[in-house]
Protein backbone atom coordinates (compact mmCIF):
# COMPACT_ATOMS: atom_id res chain seq x y z
CA UNK A 1 0.00 0.00 0.00
CA UNK A 2 1.29 3.45 -0.84
CA UNK A 3 1.69 5.98 1.95
CA UNK A 4 3.03 9.51 1.97
CA UNK A 5 6.50 8.25 0.98
CA UNK A 6 8.82 8.54 -0.91
CA UNK A 7 10.19 12.01 -0.29
CA UNK A 8 7.66 14.57 -1.50
CA UNK A 9 8.24 17.19 -4.17
CA UNK A 10 8.41 20.83 -3.19
CA UNK A 11 5.05 22.49 -2.71
CA UNK A 12 3.72 24.53 -5.65
CA UNK A 13 4.40 28.23 -5.34
CA UNK A 14 1.51 30.30 -4.02
CA UNK A 15 -0.51 31.97 -6.75
CA UNK A 16 -1.17 35.67 -6.96
CA UNK A 17 -4.83 36.11 -6.13
CA UNK A 18 -7.37 38.84 -6.73
CA UNK A 19 -6.78 42.43 -5.59
CA UNK A 20 -7.35 43.19 -1.91
CA UNK A 21 -10.88 44.37 -1.21
CA UNK A 22 -10.50 48.05 -0.15
CA UNK A 23 -12.92 47.73 2.76
CA UNK A 24 -10.97 44.73 4.07
CA UNK A 25 -7.68 46.63 3.79
CA UNK A 26 -9.26 49.51 5.70
CA UNK A 27 -10.21 47.23 8.61
CA UNK A 28 -6.68 45.87 8.77
CA UNK A 29 -5.18 49.37 8.72
CA UNK A 30 -7.56 50.59 11.43
CA UNK A 31 -6.38 47.80 13.75
CA UNK A 32 -2.66 48.30 13.05
CA UNK A 33 -2.22 50.23 16.31
CA UNK A 34 -3.77 47.58 18.54
CA UNK A 35 -1.26 46.55 21.20
CA UNK A 36 -3.32 43.91 23.00
CA UNK A 37 -2.60 40.45 21.58
CA UNK A 38 -5.37 38.27 20.17
CA UNK A 39 -6.03 35.17 22.32
CA UNK A 40 -4.79 31.88 20.87
CA UNK A 41 -7.75 30.36 19.07
CA UNK A 42 -9.34 33.75 18.46
CA UNK A 43 -11.19 36.25 20.63
CA UNK A 44 -14.92 36.09 21.38
CA UNK A 45 -15.86 38.57 18.61
CA UNK A 46 -13.96 36.71 15.93
CA UNK A 47 -15.31 33.32 16.99
CA UNK A 48 -18.80 34.79 17.10
CA UNK A 49 -18.43 36.06 13.53
CA UNK A 50 -17.32 32.60 12.43
CA UNK A 51 -20.32 31.04 14.19
CA UNK A 52 -22.60 33.45 12.33
CA UNK A 53 -20.92 32.58 9.03
CA UNK A 54 -21.71 28.88 9.51
CA UNK A 55 -25.20 29.56 10.87
CA UNK A 56 -26.08 31.37 7.64
CA UNK A 57 -25.12 28.13 5.86
CA UNK A 58 -27.39 25.97 7.96
CA UNK A 59 -24.82 24.84 10.55
CA UNK A 60 -25.80 26.02 14.01
CA UNK A 61 -22.51 26.87 15.73
CA UNK A 62 -21.64 28.05 19.21
CA UNK A 63 -18.62 30.41 19.35
CA UNK A 64 -17.22 28.13 22.05
CA UNK A 65 -16.89 25.40 19.41
CA UNK A 66 -14.74 27.54 17.07
CA UNK A 67 -11.00 28.08 16.80
CA UNK A 68 -9.17 30.62 14.62
CA UNK A 69 -5.53 30.48 13.52
CA UNK A 70 -3.10 32.15 11.10
CA UNK A 71 -3.99 29.91 8.17
CA UNK A 72 -5.20 26.37 7.59
CA UNK A 73 -1.71 24.91 8.01
CA UNK A 74 -1.41 25.36 11.81
CA UNK A 75 -5.02 24.24 12.31
CA UNK A 76 -4.50 21.02 10.34
CA UNK A 77 -1.14 20.42 12.03
CA UNK A 78 -2.73 20.85 15.46
CA UNK A 79 -5.55 18.48 14.50
CA UNK A 80 -3.20 15.73 13.36
CA UNK A 81 -0.94 16.23 16.38
CA UNK A 82 -3.84 16.16 18.84
CA UNK A 83 -4.72 12.49 18.36
CA UNK A 84 -2.81 9.37 17.39
CA UNK A 85 -3.44 7.27 14.32
CA UNK A 86 -3.07 7.46 10.57
CA UNK A 87 -4.43 10.02 8.13
CA UNK A 88 -6.45 9.18 5.02
CA UNK A 89 -6.25 11.58 2.06
CA UNK A 90 -7.70 11.51 -1.41
CA UNK A 91 -5.60 11.01 -4.52
CA UNK A 92 -5.18 13.70 -5.77
CA UNK A 93 -5.45 16.14 -2.87
CA UNK A 94 -4.17 19.58 -1.88
CA UNK A 95 -0.38 19.61 -1.99
CA UNK A 96 -0.01 20.78 1.61
CA UNK A 97 -2.00 17.99 3.32
CA UNK A 98 0.66 15.26 3.16
CA UNK A 99 3.56 17.39 4.46
CA UNK A 100 1.44 18.44 7.44
CA UNK A 101 0.70 14.81 8.26
CA UNK A 102 4.40 13.98 8.14
CA UNK A 103 5.26 17.00 10.28
CA UNK A 104 2.75 15.76 12.88
CA UNK A 105 4.37 12.32 12.80
CA UNK A 106 1.42 10.64 11.09
CA UNK A 107 1.46 8.22 8.18
CA UNK A 108 -0.70 9.42 5.29
CA UNK A 109 -2.51 6.98 3.01
CA UNK A 110 -4.01 8.11 -0.29
CA UNK A 111 -7.36 6.77 -1.49
CA UNK A 112 -8.35 7.17 -5.16
CA UNK A 113 -11.28 9.40 -6.08
CA UNK A 114 -14.18 8.22 -8.25
CA UNK A 115 -14.64 9.16 -11.88
CA UNK A 116 -17.14 11.97 -11.29
CA UNK A 117 -15.22 14.24 -8.92
CA UNK A 118 -12.18 14.84 -6.75
CA UNK A 119 -11.87 15.72 -3.08
CA UNK A 120 -13.91 12.74 -1.84
CA UNK A 121 -12.66 9.13 -2.05
CA UNK A 122 -14.35 6.20 -3.69
CA UNK A 123 -16.24 4.65 -0.74
CA UNK A 124 -15.27 1.05 -1.59
CA UNK A 125 -11.62 2.02 -1.97
CA UNK A 126 -11.86 3.82 1.37
CA UNK A 127 -13.12 0.71 3.16
CA UNK A 128 -10.44 -1.45 1.53
CA UNK A 129 -7.71 1.02 2.53
CA UNK A 130 -8.94 1.08 6.13
CA UNK A 131 -8.98 -2.74 6.17
CA UNK A 132 -5.39 -2.91 4.95
CA UNK A 133 -4.16 -0.31 7.43
CA UNK A 134 -5.68 -2.28 10.29
CA UNK A 135 -4.29 -5.55 8.92
CA UNK A 136 -0.82 -3.98 9.04
CA UNK A 137 -1.33 -2.98 12.69
CA UNK A 138 -2.27 0.65 12.02
CA UNK A 139 -5.08 2.75 13.44
CA UNK A 140 -6.80 5.02 10.90
CA UNK A 141 -7.96 8.22 12.61
CA UNK A 142 -8.62 11.17 10.26
CA UNK A 143 -10.19 11.36 6.80
CA UNK A 144 -9.62 14.68 5.01
CA UNK A 145 -12.30 15.61 2.48
CA UNK A 146 -12.74 18.60 0.17
CA UNK A 147 -16.28 18.57 -1.24
CA UNK A 148 -15.64 21.82 -3.14
CA UNK A 149 -12.20 20.73 -4.22
CA UNK A 150 -9.41 23.22 -4.91
CA UNK A 151 -7.20 20.68 -6.67
CA UNK A 152 -9.69 19.43 -9.27
CA UNK A 153 -12.23 22.27 -9.25
CA UNK A 154 -15.09 19.79 -8.77
CA UNK A 155 -17.98 19.56 -6.30
CA UNK A 156 -18.81 16.10 -4.96
CA UNK A 157 -22.47 15.02 -5.35
CA UNK A 158 -24.44 14.57 -2.09
CA UNK A 159 -25.20 10.91 -2.74
CA UNK A 160 -21.51 10.03 -3.01
CA UNK A 161 -20.69 12.11 0.07
CA UNK A 162 -23.40 10.29 2.01
CA UNK A 163 -21.84 6.91 1.17
CA UNK A 164 -18.41 8.14 2.27
CA UNK A 165 -19.75 9.60 5.52
CA UNK A 166 -21.49 6.32 6.32
CA UNK A 167 -18.30 4.37 5.64
CA UNK A 168 -16.29 6.78 7.81
CA UNK A 169 -18.80 6.47 10.66
CA UNK A 170 -18.75 2.67 10.47
CA UNK A 171 -14.96 2.73 10.75
CA UNK A 172 -14.81 5.31 13.53
CA UNK A 173 -13.02 7.96 11.45
CA UNK A 174 -13.05 11.66 12.21
CA UNK A 175 -13.75 13.67 9.07
CA UNK A 176 -11.89 16.93 8.44
CA UNK A 177 -13.93 18.82 5.86
CA UNK A 178 -11.95 21.52 4.06
CA UNK A 179 -14.70 23.90 2.91
CA UNK A 180 -12.53 26.84 1.91
CA UNK A 181 -14.03 26.92 -1.60
CA UNK A 182 -17.68 26.32 -0.79
CA UNK A 183 -18.50 29.97 -1.60
CA UNK A 184 -16.65 29.88 -4.92
CA UNK A 185 -19.07 27.51 -6.69
CA UNK A 186 -19.57 28.70 -10.25
CA UNK A 187 -23.35 28.28 -10.09
CA UNK A 188 -23.52 31.32 -7.82
CA UNK A 189 -25.26 31.94 -4.49
CA UNK A 190 -28.10 29.57 -5.42
CA UNK A 191 -25.77 26.60 -5.73
CA UNK A 192 -26.56 23.70 -3.43
CA UNK A 193 -23.63 22.71 -1.25
CA UNK A 194 -23.98 19.74 1.09
CA UNK A 195 -21.13 19.19 3.54
CA UNK A 196 -20.25 16.25 5.78
CA UNK A 197 -21.20 18.15 8.96
CA UNK A 198 -24.82 18.08 7.81
CA UNK A 199 -24.69 14.28 7.60
CA UNK A 200 -22.44 13.35 10.54
CA UNK A 201 -22.34 16.36 12.91
CA UNK A 202 -20.71 14.45 15.78
CA UNK A 203 -17.61 13.42 13.85
CA UNK A 204 -16.84 16.28 11.46
CA UNK A 205 -14.40 19.17 11.90
CA UNK A 206 -15.09 21.92 9.35
CA UNK A 207 -12.02 23.84 8.22
CA UNK A 208 -12.41 27.13 6.33
CA UNK A 209 -9.38 29.02 5.09
CA UNK A 210 -10.47 32.55 4.23
CA UNK A 211 -7.68 33.02 1.67
CA UNK A 212 -9.26 31.45 -1.42
CA UNK A 213 -12.46 33.54 -1.33
CA UNK A 214 -13.12 35.86 1.64
CA UNK A 215 -9.67 37.40 2.07
CA UNK A 216 -6.42 37.76 0.10
CA UNK A 217 -4.54 34.48 -0.31
CA UNK A 218 -1.44 36.11 1.19
CA UNK A 219 -3.25 36.81 4.49
CA UNK A 220 -3.09 33.69 6.71
CA UNK A 221 -6.61 33.43 8.12
CA UNK A 222 -8.57 30.26 8.92
CA UNK A 223 -11.28 29.05 11.27
CA UNK A 224 -12.42 25.59 12.34
CA UNK A 225 -15.74 24.36 13.71
CA UNK A 226 -15.60 21.40 16.11
CA UNK A 227 -18.20 18.77 17.04
CA UNK A 228 -19.63 18.98 20.55
CA UNK A 229 -20.63 15.33 21.01
CA UNK A 230 -19.43 11.85 20.14
CA UNK A 231 -15.84 10.65 20.25
CA UNK A 232 -14.49 14.08 19.27
CA UNK A 233 -16.11 16.26 21.94
CA UNK A 234 -12.69 16.91 23.54
CA UNK A 235 -10.88 17.47 20.26
CA UNK A 236 -11.14 21.28 20.34
CA UNK A 237 -9.45 21.40 23.75
CA UNK A 238 -6.53 19.29 22.55
CA UNK A 239 -6.17 21.31 19.33
CA UNK A 240 -6.17 24.57 21.32
CA UNK A 241 -3.39 23.15 23.49
CA UNK A 242 -1.26 22.44 20.41
CA UNK A 243 -1.96 25.90 18.95
CA UNK A 244 -0.90 27.43 22.27
CA UNK A 245 2.36 25.47 22.18
CA UNK A 246 2.95 26.74 18.64
CA UNK A 247 2.07 30.34 19.64
CA UNK A 248 -0.27 30.30 16.67
CA UNK A 249 -2.29 33.39 17.51
CA UNK A 250 -3.57 35.80 14.89
CA UNK A 251 -2.01 39.27 14.74
CA UNK A 252 -4.67 41.79 15.85
CA UNK A 253 -4.94 43.51 12.43
CA UNK A 254 -5.56 40.18 10.72
CA UNK A 255 -8.10 39.24 13.37
CA UNK A 256 -9.97 42.48 12.67
CA UNK A 257 -9.94 41.76 8.94
CA UNK A 258 -11.15 38.19 9.53
CA UNK A 259 -13.99 39.44 11.72
CA UNK A 260 -15.10 41.82 8.96
CA UNK A 261 -14.88 39.15 6.25
CA UNK A 262 -16.78 36.52 8.25
CA UNK A 263 -19.56 39.01 9.06
CA UNK A 264 -20.10 39.21 5.27
CA UNK A 265 -21.21 42.81 4.79
CA UNK A 266 -22.35 43.85 1.31
CA UNK A 267 -18.85 44.57 -0.12
CA UNK A 268 -17.66 41.08 0.88
CA UNK A 269 -20.76 39.39 -0.53
CA UNK A 270 -20.38 41.30 -3.79
CA UNK A 271 -16.70 40.32 -4.07
CA UNK A 272 -17.44 36.64 -3.43
CA UNK A 273 -20.13 36.60 -6.11
CA UNK A 274 -17.88 38.42 -8.58
CA UNK A 275 -14.97 36.06 -7.92
CA UNK A 276 -17.13 32.95 -8.38
CA UNK A 277 -18.52 34.36 -11.64
CA UNK A 278 -15.02 35.24 -12.87
CA UNK A 279 -13.58 31.82 -12.03
CA UNK A 280 -16.47 30.06 -13.68
CA UNK A 281 -16.16 32.11 -16.86
CA UNK A 282 -12.40 31.83 -17.31
CA UNK A 283 -12.01 28.24 -16.13
CA UNK A 284 -14.96 27.30 -18.33
CA UNK A 285 -13.22 28.87 -21.34
CA UNK A 286 -10.42 26.32 -21.01
CA UNK A 287 -12.78 23.52 -22.04
CA UNK A 288 -12.60 24.02 -25.79
CA UNK A 289 -8.81 24.03 -26.31
CA UNK A 290 -8.35 21.12 -23.92
CA UNK A 291 -11.06 19.03 -25.54
CA UNK A 292 -9.70 19.83 -29.01
CA UNK A 293 -6.27 18.59 -27.93
CA UNK A 294 -7.68 15.32 -26.59
CA UNK A 295 -7.08 16.18 -22.93
CA UNK A 296 -9.36 14.56 -20.34
CA UNK A 297 -10.66 16.54 -17.36
CA UNK A 298 -13.60 16.84 -15.02
CA UNK A 299 -15.49 20.07 -15.80
CA UNK A 300 -14.68 22.61 -13.06
CA UNK A 301 -17.53 23.74 -10.82
CA UNK A 302 -15.74 25.72 -8.13
CA UNK A 303 -12.70 27.95 -7.75
CA UNK A 304 -10.06 28.82 -10.35
CA UNK A 305 -8.55 25.37 -11.02
CA UNK A 306 -9.09 22.26 -13.08
CA UNK A 307 -7.16 19.01 -13.19
CA UNK A 308 -6.13 17.74 -16.61
CA UNK A 309 -5.11 14.22 -17.63
CA UNK A 310 -2.96 13.95 -20.76
CA UNK A 311 -2.66 10.17 -20.62
CA UNK A 312 -4.38 9.81 -24.01
CA UNK A 313 -1.47 11.75 -25.52
CA UNK A 314 1.23 9.55 -23.97
CA UNK A 315 2.77 8.42 -27.28
CA UNK A 316 2.73 11.91 -28.76
CA UNK A 317 4.28 13.36 -25.61
CA UNK A 318 6.93 10.62 -25.43
CA UNK A 319 8.07 11.59 -28.91
CA UNK A 320 8.72 15.06 -27.46
CA UNK A 321 10.65 13.64 -24.52
CA UNK A 322 7.77 14.11 -22.06
CA UNK A 323 7.29 10.85 -20.17
CA UNK A 324 5.97 11.87 -16.75
CA UNK A 325 4.27 14.70 -14.89
CA UNK A 326 7.63 16.26 -13.97
CA UNK A 327 8.50 16.65 -17.66
CA UNK A 328 4.97 17.86 -18.39
CA UNK A 329 5.17 20.47 -15.66
CA UNK A 330 8.48 21.76 -17.02
CA UNK A 331 7.20 21.95 -20.60
CA UNK A 332 3.88 23.67 -19.83
CA UNK A 333 5.44 26.10 -17.36
CA UNK A 334 7.80 27.26 -20.10
CA UNK A 335 5.10 27.30 -22.79
CA UNK A 336 2.52 29.23 -20.75
CA UNK A 337 4.92 31.48 -18.86
CA UNK A 338 3.58 30.67 -15.40
CA UNK A 339 3.85 27.67 -13.03
CA UNK A 340 1.80 24.63 -14.02
CA UNK A 341 2.25 22.08 -11.20
CA UNK A 342 2.29 18.42 -12.17
CA UNK A 343 0.12 15.75 -10.60
CA UNK A 344 3.04 14.37 -8.59
CA UNK A 345 2.67 17.40 -6.31
CA UNK A 346 -0.89 16.37 -5.44
CA UNK A 347 -0.29 12.72 -4.59
CA UNK A 348 -0.56 11.20 -8.06
CA UNK A 349 2.18 8.94 -9.41
CA UNK A 350 4.66 10.80 -11.67
CA UNK A 351 3.89 8.35 -14.49
CA UNK A 352 0.36 9.73 -14.60
CA UNK A 353 0.49 12.59 -17.07
CA UNK A 354 -1.58 15.05 -15.05
CA UNK A 355 -1.34 18.76 -14.25
CA UNK A 356 -3.36 21.33 -12.39
CA UNK A 357 -4.33 24.30 -14.53
CA UNK A 358 -5.38 27.67 -13.16
CA UNK A 359 -7.50 30.55 -14.39
CA UNK A 360 -5.68 33.06 -12.16
CA UNK A 361 -2.57 33.65 -14.33
CA UNK A 362 -4.84 34.31 -17.32
CA UNK A 363 -6.22 37.44 -15.65
CA UNK A 364 -3.00 39.41 -16.06
CA UNK A 365 -0.04 40.06 -13.77
CA UNK A 366 -1.15 43.37 -12.24
CA UNK A 367 -3.87 44.22 -9.76
CA UNK A 368 -5.31 46.70 -12.24
CA UNK A 369 -5.71 44.03 -14.91
CA UNK A 370 -7.25 41.56 -12.49
CA UNK A 371 -9.66 44.18 -11.19
CA UNK A 372 -10.79 44.93 -14.74
CA UNK A 373 -11.47 41.25 -15.34
CA UNK A 374 -13.32 41.07 -12.02
CA UNK A 375 -15.49 44.07 -12.89
CA UNK A 376 -16.18 43.10 -16.50
CA UNK A 377 -19.61 41.83 -17.48
CA UNK A 378 -17.79 39.33 -19.69
CA UNK A 379 -14.15 38.87 -18.59
CA UNK A 380 -13.41 36.88 -21.75
CA UNK A 381 -13.55 40.14 -23.71
CA UNK A 382 -10.71 41.59 -21.64
CA UNK A 383 -7.61 41.97 -23.87
CA UNK A 384 -5.35 40.34 -21.27
CA UNK A 385 -7.67 37.37 -20.80
CA UNK A 386 -8.26 36.93 -24.53
CA UNK A 387 -4.51 36.99 -25.24
CA UNK A 388 -3.79 34.51 -22.44
CA UNK A 389 -6.49 32.13 -23.69
CA UNK A 390 -4.96 32.29 -27.18
CA UNK A 391 -1.53 31.36 -25.81
CA UNK A 392 -3.13 28.58 -23.77
CA UNK A 393 -4.89 27.12 -26.81
CA UNK A 394 -1.77 27.30 -28.95
CA UNK A 395 0.33 25.56 -26.29
CA UNK A 396 -2.00 22.59 -26.05
CA UNK A 397 -2.57 22.40 -29.78
CA UNK A 398 1.17 22.20 -30.37
CA UNK A 399 1.60 19.72 -27.53
CA UNK A 400 -0.98 17.39 -29.07
CA UNK A 401 0.26 17.96 -32.62
CA UNK A 402 -3.21 19.06 -33.77
Describe this structure in words.
It is a single chain. This protein is α/β, with parallel strands linked by helices. The longest helix has 20 residues, at 266-285. Residues 1-6 have low confidence and may be disordered. The protein has helices at 22-30, 44-55, 72-81, 97-103, 123-135, 158-170, 235-246, 252-263, 266-285, 287-292, 314-319, 325-336, 367-375, 383-400, and strands at residues 66-69, 86-91, 108-112, 140-145, 174-178, 204-209, 222-225, 296-297, 305-309, 354-358. Helix content is 40%, strand content 12%. The strands form two sheets. It has a seven-stranded mixed beta sheet, sandwiched between helices. A three-stranded antiparallel beta sheet has the order 8-9-10. The chain is globular. Helix 3 (72-81) packs across helix 4.
Element order, helices and strands? HHEHEHEHEHEEEHHHHEEHHEHH
Instruction: Give the spatial strand order of the biggest sheet.
Output: 1-7-6-5-4-2-3
Distance between the termini: 39 Å
Summed up, the helix count is 14
Number of E strands: 10
Largest pleated sheet: 7 strands, mixed
Please provide a brief summary of the model:
Helix content is 40%, strand content 12%. By secondary structure, it is of the alpha/beta class. The model is unreliable at 1-6 (pLDDT under 50).
Amino acid sequence: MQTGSPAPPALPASERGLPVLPELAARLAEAAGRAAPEPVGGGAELRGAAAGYWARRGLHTDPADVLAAPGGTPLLLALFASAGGEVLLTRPCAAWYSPIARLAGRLAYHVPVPAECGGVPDPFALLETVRRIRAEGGRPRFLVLSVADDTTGTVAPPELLHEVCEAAADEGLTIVSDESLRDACHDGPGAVFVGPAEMAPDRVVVLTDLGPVLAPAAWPLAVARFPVAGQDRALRTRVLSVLSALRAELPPPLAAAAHYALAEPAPVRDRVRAAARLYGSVAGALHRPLAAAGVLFRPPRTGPHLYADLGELRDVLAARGITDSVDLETHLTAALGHPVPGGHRFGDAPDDLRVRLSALPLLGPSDEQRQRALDAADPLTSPEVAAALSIFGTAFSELAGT
